[in-house]
Design brief:
Chain lengths: 217, 205
């Protein structure tokens, strides 16, 4: 598919997500709001990054040294939309929801997609290693909270959201653990020739994570 | 380090901190309930002069309370949980307020947000259950839908279905001061003595 077609597809998906019935359906449940709609919006930004890669202004590519400003923008953006008050406002006020619909693709997904390739492998590992436990911790907080954190969601929805976040954290943690230790896909390490002296398979060299973590620079 | 890195980094950090500070009211609240509490304490809110009717069928308006403080709660008469507890607490506040003799009298007002089920009969039954007698403790409902919407909006009450035919709402006891402004949010789990005390304290200008 050519680039214009891809951009059109992203815009179309964005508009469909904005359609009122779908918006209300996805935002009617806390877990769906947090783990379906929000990631989809970030995903659209990632796709946008893939589509415009190489076409970004030269000064921006240069100023985004090692992807640091970009990834910090991502950290702020995701932190903002993890505030229970922000979720409430997005449900209550269509204008606030519009801010969410613009900021998640453009200020989270897009910089993530553009900066990720500029980040050193250890920097990427740092982000993963921070993000995954944080997700689980927030899930645990939702389960432990005796009161409702959002005025628009029931306590049982809050608990479901908590469990969903924990399940996602465990799944991502497992995948990332395998990727970090064995390589991804897992056959990667097994495909190496066995070492002659011990017969054991050598792991990948320290800190040089296998693809997709290896730097493309 | 490359050219433009530091300015871009400074821009991102400044904008990020500003956005988080704005949404958390200076890193003090993370929930909408906390934000409402803080906002009301900072700036007591004027309230719309909504027409209501009480359990005896008498019409009155919120503005009629001007000059004396009133404790307000929001209810629906079929509510099995929080409203019942609040009803009991309000009953005790009523006893305390009327028994004290000296000091300002506190009025109580329970407002129903369920116009479909809560007609005058239902309000009357609810009032009888908790010993509420008008005008000192009115069990009331807004006279029309726009009045209800205005009340919920100005008090910041969010009502959502509980999935079992009932409702869930952000519960609080609302203290409306002698100027007719929403002045404080009180903890509905606080002991009735404390509610009465806080109401009396707030009624002294």
């Amino acid at each position: 598919m050519n680039n214009n077609g891809r951009l059109l597809l992203i815009a179309g998906a964005w508009l469909i997500l904005w359609l009122r019935p779908l918006r209300i359906a996805l935002e009617g449940d806390m877990a769906v709001h947090m783990t379906v709609q929000v990631p989809l919006l970030i995903g659209l930004g990632l796709l946008l990054a893939v589509s415009i890669r190489g076409q970004e202004p030269h000064w921006l590519a240069e100023a985004d040294w090692l992807g640091i400003p970009g990834i910090i923008l991502v950290i702020f953006g995701t932190s903002f939309w993890m505030l229970p008050r922000a979720l409430d406002s997005a449900v209550a006020d269509p204008w606030f929801d519009a801010i969410k619909f613009l900021s998640l693709p453009l200020l989270v997904g897009l910089p993530l997609g553009l900066s990720w390739r500029r980040m050193p492998p250890l920097g990427r590992a740092f982000i993963w290693a921070n993000f995954i436990p944080k997700l689980g911790a927030i899930g645990g907080l939702y389960l432990a909270a005796p009161t409702r954190l959002c005025a628009y969601y029931r306590l049982d929805q809050q608990a479901t959201a908590g469990w969903t976040l924990i399940v996602i954290a465990v799944a991502l943690g497992t995948l990332w653990f395998i990727a970090a230790f064995v390589g991804w896909p897992p056959q990667h390490a097994a495909a190496r020739p066995p070492s002659r002296d011990t017969g054991s398979k050598p792991g990948p060299p320290l800190l040089a994570l296998p693809p997709p973590y290896a730097s493309s620079r | 380090m490359t050219r433009g890195f530091l300015p871009l980094l400074a821009l991102v950090v400044t904008a990020g901190v500003a956005a988080l500070a704005w949404e958390t009211e200076g890193f003090r609240v993370v929930t909408s309930a906390g934000a409402r509490q803080l906002d009301i304490e900072r700036r007591p809110r004027p309230l719309p002069d909504v027409r209501l009717f009480d359990q005896d069928g008498h019409a009155f308006s919120l503005g009629d309370y001007k000059g004396r403080p009133v404790l307000v709660d929001f209810i629906y008469t079929r509510c099995p949980t929080i409203c019942s507890a609040l009803g009991d607490d309000f009953h005790r506040v009523m006893d305390l307020a009327s028994g004290s003799g000296s000091g300002p009298q506190i009025d109580l007002l329970s407002i129903s947000f369920d116009p479909v089920n809560d007609d005058r009969e239902a309000l009357k039954l609810y009032g009888d259950r908790y010993g509420a007698t008008a005008p000192h403790w009115r069990i009331a409902a807004p006279a029309d839908a726009s009045g209800l919407a205005a009340l919920l909006q100005s008090f910041g009450v969010v009502v959502i279905p509980d999935g079992m035919g009932g409702f869930i709402h952000n519960s609080a006891v609302y203290l409306v001061d002698a100027h007719g402004r929403l002045a404080r949010l009180l903890d509905p789990d606080a002991p009735p003595q404390l509610l009465a005390q806080q109401a009396v304290k707030a009624s002294v200008p």
